[in-house]
Design a protein that fits this description.
Two copies of one chain form a homodimer. The first copy, chain A, is mainly alpha-helical. Chain A is built from six helices and three strands; from the N terminus they run ααβααββαα. The first copy, chain A, has a three-stranded antiparallel β-sheet with strand order 1-3-2. The model of chain A has no long low-confidence stretch (mean pLDDT 90). Chain A binds a DNA duplex through helix 4.
Chain lengths: 145, 145
Amino acid sequence: MANMSSEDWAFWDTWMRAQRLLVRELDRGLQRDCGISKAEFSVLVTLRRPMRVGELADALGWEKSRVAHLLTRMEKRGLVARTEDGAGGRRTGIELTGEGRRLAGSATRVHGANIRRHVLDSLTPEQAAAIRSWSEALIARVEPS
Amino acid sequence: MANMSSEDWAFWDTWMRAQRLLVRELDRGLQRDCGISKAEFSVLVTLRRPMRVGELADALGWEKSRVAHLLTRMEKRGLVARTEDGAGGRRTGIELTGEGRRLAGSATRVHGANIRRHVLDSLTPEQAAAIRSWSEALIARVEPS
DNA sequence: CCCCAAGAGTTGATGTGTCAACTCTAGCCT
DNA sequence: AGGCTAGAGTTGACACATCAACTCTTGGGG
């Protein structure tokens, strides 16, 4: 296996740099316009109906503890509510509040517009196709599920 | 400005998913084989000669406070050393220790091999070209310096 | 029936990044 | 000289992710 050439490193650095800038821009937009983080946005759009915490964690592909911590913070801010899950009285159900539902809608519009502006509008169809095929190949290789 | 279609969202989700998986793989490799994080790796390879903290922060494109916190942790582990900066006796200089220099070398080899294996070897020339041109365009647009 | 093992969720410790507030030094202005 | 301000660096508070340890409930065996 050949070592990395300096062109290889330059390519890699440029790519990762662009990635960081993009993520930073989008995060700031979401924070500035909606007051939420990207993780919170993911929860809001995934939690379209009441579900169990574990179900939400699976849908997001995150660890349970990450979800639990985040839900605690979001519950404190009134975006989600833990509910009695029937059997046994443990509060294992989770659902959006009215406020959460409202935010989910506006955040989707705002974030979508930002993605379109920062990314989609500046991609040629060939670039988009190349990126899509690379992404799918990597996911298939790393996550053979 | 048109809204995001569901194909747009699917494209975006796939891309970000691949990106997260890739970063996670590389981070784990660096942690497992060298015991350092990606941020620490960046410091080790950037700090080839003694410099001021601010100079290091500029070279990395990071905030000063992030660098200060990270240096504190790395100093505690013996990878870098703060030095008297001459004038005034404040310790504003920073340099690698012998241990840090040794780690920088081996980590560069290990990390480079991982990048080649996970990324470069699985990119077609068209994909690489598309990613490079997109990255350069985004950097130029967001960071017009 | 009682105990206990498995599953679901939570919690605490630690590492990390960001923002704002702070300290220290040096240089300038009067 | 005395004081003010700008720049450099640090620190503290908080948000977040991960890991391991913990609690609570349920559903079996004995």
